[in-house]
Amino acid sequence: MNTCKNCSLTFEGKYCPACGEKVIENKDFSLTHIFGQAIGMLTNLDSKLYNTLKLLFLRPGQLSLYNIQGIRVPYMNPIQIFLISNVIFFIFLSDIDIFRTPSVWFFQEDFDGIKVMDHVRQIMLEKNLTQENVAILYDQISSNLAKSLLIFLIPLLAIPNMGLHQNKKYQAGKHIIFITHYLSFILILLVFILQLAMIFSTNKWSAIIPLLIVGSVYYIISNHRFYGERWYLSIAKGLIFLIIFVVITQIYKMLVNVLTLYTM
After folding, report:
1. pTM exceeding the 0.70 threshold for the entire prediction
2. Are residues 48 and 139 in the same domain?
3. Are residues 128 and 227 both part of a single domain?
4. pLDDT tens, 154-199?
5. E strand segments, the chain
6. What is the pairing mode between strands 2-3 and 10-11?
7. Which of 7, 50, 173, 221 meets the CB 3.0–4.6 Å disulfide criterion with 60?
8. What's the structural domain count of the chain?
């Protein structure tokens, strides 16, 4: 008989029937066993990542559909793939200005009603910095904030998406899953498109148009597959969501700009 160290249940066998805790044996600490566990974990992770990215890119909306249907074991959960997408975005586009306004444009006397230079001069006075130093500090902080706060884009986009699908009576969590996968795709797509723009030495802002076009098509297909709506409804909602996406990302940029300015 064994006594579980985790829940104190007495049982027979190697695994506790109440909590699943394994009975620890000396062989569990052998190098062979530890390395075997590590290799198995990495292999499982690689398999899940491959399966997840394959569905994410080749079958828009299917990953979200599988998730709400309970088919989850072969795939990463939505937050995991979003965080991986965020890391990829952070690594490959560390200096990109898609989700913030750099100081060269933001530092104006009046930027969309915000008295930016008044705050800049106050920071210069309080911290004994030049305007150039404040600009460098602002760019560093805003760049980090723009990437680290991207997770908040999920609820910002999920709420209007819920409004587009009120007739479905889906729980909020299902819309969150759908938008999480959609935003994960957009981040990776953005990296891919901007890397191509850099390779071919084209203006990075010219990549925004194909991003919006591909993003809209992806949303339309995802909407058709996940919500089961007719194509004409999916196309109409895709065009509406494109406008919503642009507006929300602009609001996000402004929030990042202001938050950076007021917390420096």
Report:
1. yes
2. no
3. yes
4. 999 999 999 999 988 899 999 999 999 999 999 999 888 887 877 7
5. 2-3, 10-11
6. antiparallel
7. 221
8. 2
